[in-house]
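Researcher: I'd like a structural prediction for the single chain below. Treat it as a standalone chain; there are no partners to consider.
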Amino acid sequence: MYRCSWSADLESLGRIVAPSTRQPPLAGALLNQATSRLLLGRAEDALVSIEESVLLHRTLAERHPALHLPDLARSLLLGGRILDRLGRREAALQRLVEAVGAAHRTKILTLIARARATLEEMRARR
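Model: Treating it as a single chain, here is the predicted structure.
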């Protein structure tokens, strides 16, 4: 595995900065990575990234729901899409139902609509 010359410096900095400070950017980066991997046709790799993202966003949303619940809903939504792409329909449906619930708690109408539409689309294909 190739390591850039400054990766050791980033690891050192990571030990200095409090883990709670690193979690939000890491969770967002994992969500972006999962999206990119899915677009590249690497659904299995995308699933690994999104599972980590969901775990971090879930922890963050428990501490600060108003701040992190929208990102949890987005991660759950993408997780459902990835699971669907991998043919894991039941797990995908469970994830999407959870995404709709999280989206409703955010009161962000576009997120609610997107989560509902994805869930209905998947249910229609059953």
